[in-house]
Every structure is written in structure tokens, then in C-alpha cells.
Amino acid sequence: MNNNNIVTFENWGQRPKAFKHEDRSTYPSDKDQQQKMNTWDMLVESAKMDPKDENSKDTKRMLMKQYYNKKGSGREYMNDSELKLIGKHKSQLEKPKPIIDVSSFGPLIKPHRPSPEPEVNINEVIRDRASLKPGISEDLVKLNADIAKNIKYVLGEKEESQESENEKQLNKEETYD
């Protein structure tokens, strides 16, 4: 197990473990950690140089998986170059929009204010504006005659004046013969 070739082969393409005081395998002086750090830095650099390469895509997938991992080591152990590679660095994130203080704006709907009471009585206005004066007048008689004429027309009754005019025309025609 202490063969350097086997350790190098096993550590190729693996991310180094996050440093913990109580675990000796996470110390930078450990041979596995040293090899993982060297190869991982190489992979990150090659992913920056050639983003279309399959190894670069795998590296980015691993970084994204670690970034969104809810258990264990997550984004707090990622360095700036790794975060920039996946587009999650502070300089690449969208700036938060300023919060607008809504209390400074007034309401859009104006409060209802009841209209003041009218000074003139409504009955007086109706009486003043009426087209017909109260009582019997020529206008009232004419209006009643027009209403009666329209009722007869709607009901289909013939008017006496039309019948008499039709008879007169017939009589005139007969005399000219």
C-alpha cells in the first residue's frame, strides 16, 4: 500500500479532503493529500484552459456536486479558482437589488369623501325643469293626442282622418271618369 505508483493512480482526479485538526489524513504533510492537491490543482487549471474537454466537464460536474452538497464538506471549503470555474464566485454572482421603502409612497386609491348635501331641493329642480307646466295647457292636449294616435297605430286601428281622405280621393276619381 505504500507504493507511490498505486497511491498516485488512486489519487488521480480526486479532490483533496477538507482540513480537520483531529484527522491526520487531512494534513498537508500526508502523502495522499499532497498528491491529491497537486493533481487537483492541475485539473482545475486544465479545466480553465480548455472548457470543452471531457475532463474539464467532469471537473466542473464534480465542483457543482460539491457546491450543492448538503451533507459533509460543501462550498465553504472551495477556493476562489474553483468557484470562478463554475460561476459561483462572489464577483460573478448577481448583485442584490436595493430594497425600496414602500412606506414613503402614499396609497393609490384616494379616500372616499362624501359629497356635500345639495343646497336646492330635488323636487324644486324637477318642477323648474319640467317641459310642461302643471294644469291643462295646449302642450298637454297636443301631447295626449299624439300618444293616442301612436297607440292606435301600434294596435292596427285605422285613423278616421286617413279613411276620410281615402274616400275623398276615390270619389274624385269616380267623377272624372
What does this structure look like?
The chain folds into two domains: 4-86, no CATH class; 134-176, no CATH class. The chain starts with a helix and ends with a helix. The mean pLDDT is 76. The chain contains seven helices and no strands. By secondary structure, the protein is an all-alpha fold.
Features:
177 residues; mainly alpha; 2 domains; 51% helix
Summary, kept brief:
With 177 residues, this protein is an all-alpha fold. It has helices at 4-11, 31-49, 54-67, 80-86, 122-129, 138-155, 160-176.
Give the helix/strand layout:
Elements: H1 4-11, H2 31-49, H3 54-67, H4 80-86, H5 122-129, H6 138-155, H7 160-176
Mean pLDDT: 76
What number of domains? 2
What distance lies between the first and last C-alpha atoms, to the nearest angstrom?
144 Å
> How many extended strands?
0
Query: Treating each run of at least 4 consecutive H or I residues as one helix, how many helices?
Result: 7
Sheet with the most strands? none
Q: Provide the succession of SSEs.
A: HHHHHHH
Assign the structural class, choosing from mainly alpha, mainly beta, alpha/beta, alpha+beta, or little secondary structure.
mainly alpha
What is the beta-strand fraction?
Answer: under 5%
